[in-house]
Amino acid sequence: MTWFVAPWGGEVQGVENAHQVWARRDGWLLALCDSGQVSFGEATPLPGFGVDGLAALDPALLPPPVDDLDAIESLVRTVAWPSARFAVETALLDRIARRRGQSLARLLGAAALTAPRSVLAGALLASDCLAVARAHVARGARTLKLKALGRDLDEEGRQLGELRRLLGPHVALRLDLNGGLDAGAAREALALYAVHGIELCEEPATGPELLKLEAGATPWFADESATSPEMFAALLEHPGCAGFVLKPTLIGGLLASIGRARRAGAAGKQAVTSHAFEGPVALAAASELALVLGAGTAHGLDRHAALAAFPPLTLPQLPERAPLVVAASGGAGLGIHVEGPWDCR
């Protein structure tokens, strides 16, 4: 059994949210060679979100493979940083699933063969917003997410009206405020969004401000604010919060994300998964997670601009056919292979 660790990533363009631009996406690709088989994991932390001090991964310090899911969950708790935990766990789970000849999603208990997916269509007030939205709908998107600021509500309302007239009633719209408002301003924005039939709003405020925000006509989900276990627990009990966006890179793995999703369901809240502008291995793993979480609400998974920093891989979980969905890969494990100097003889 041999672990390989390779630098992963590079320069990117057009990777941003409402408050931050990333000129690079850098991380590490893990390859675990065992008995002639190679499995993969990816650690690409997102600067500015959560606490992640990943600088390098020493192959000599990575754990040996185990064949029991509970043992894996226990083992990865000893890995210091969330993105590294995600990478190590993904590779260990990928190994087991490949050995059993089943997909990683099926290994983790998925029953669904497809799940709906949402597509990021840029910024709500961008000059090309309508053209980008129309192009994604032509691809087969049935749920669009747009970044919003929630400040110029008159202009946002006008643009939402244009979008609704252009797209009709059958395309769901959701917004992401990236935690840019306080509770009072978020309350006003959510009231306006309800007028335009917005399906949900992600992260309308940040941290303690979310705990001041009651349920409104537009449901809201916590995203980055719920990364910490303490804030997740508080929001789990908060009646205003309708659900959570789970990013395995920030949370620290697939099993931890599934555990959170189960707790959310028990509290009457929804859970979806999304990417954190990582490379294709992490995106494939998040897609397998989407099949485990199910088909209730569209998951934020689609090819994105940051993938340009990584080797091009075909992701069978994200087929380009209408309607756009997350689909079972049809292969074992992650259903992908990355070329590299992996000597697995």
What's the short story on this structure?
With 345 residues, the protein is an alpha/beta fold. The protein is built from eleven helices and twelve strands. The protein has a seven-stranded parallel beta sheet with strand order 5-6-7-8-9-10-11. It has a three-stranded antiparallel beta sheet with strand order 1-2-3.
Question: How would you portray this structure in words?
Answer:
The structure is a single chain. The chain contains eleven helices and twelve strands. The longest helix has 19 residues, at 82-100. The strands form three sheets. The protein has a seven-stranded parallel β-sheet. A three-stranded antiparallel β-sheet has the order 1-2-3. The protein is 33% helix and 18% strand. The chain folds into two domains: 2-101, Enolase-like, N-terminal domain (Enolase-like, domain 1, 2-Layer Sandwich); 114-327, TIM Barrel, CATH 3.20.20. It has helices at residues 69-76, 82-100, 104-107, 129-139, 153-167, 183-195, 208-211, 229-237, 248-251, 254-266, 280-293, and strands at residues 2-11, 24-34, 37-43, 114-116, 119-123, 143-147, 172-176, 200-202, 220-222, 243-246, 270-273, 325-327. The protein is globular and about 65 Å long. It has 345 residues and is of the alpha/beta class.
What labels would you give this structure?
345 residues; alpha/beta; Enolase-like, domain 1; TIM Barrel; 2 domains; seven-stranded parallel beta sheet; three-stranded antiparallel beta sheet; globular
Number of beta strands: 12
- The CATH topology of the largest domain turns out to be TIM Barrel
Q: Helix fraction?
A: 25-40%
Uncertain parts: none
The CATH superfamily of the largest domain turns out to be: Enolase-like C-terminal domain
Shape: globular
* SSE order, one letter for each helix or strand: EEEHHHEEHEHEHEHEHEHHEHE
Proportion of residues in β-strands: 15-25%
Write out the strand line-up for the largest beta sheet, numbering strands in chain order.
5-6-7-8-9-10-11
CATH architecture of the largest domain, by name, is Alpha-Beta Barrel
Compute the separation of the termini in Å. 10 Å
CATH class of the largest domain: Alpha Beta
Instruction: Report Rg.
Output: 20 Å
Number of domains: 2
Q: Given the helix and strand composition, which structural class is it?
A: alpha/beta
Helical region count? Answer: 11
Mean pLDDT, nearest integer?
Answer: 93
Largest sheet: 7 strands, parallel
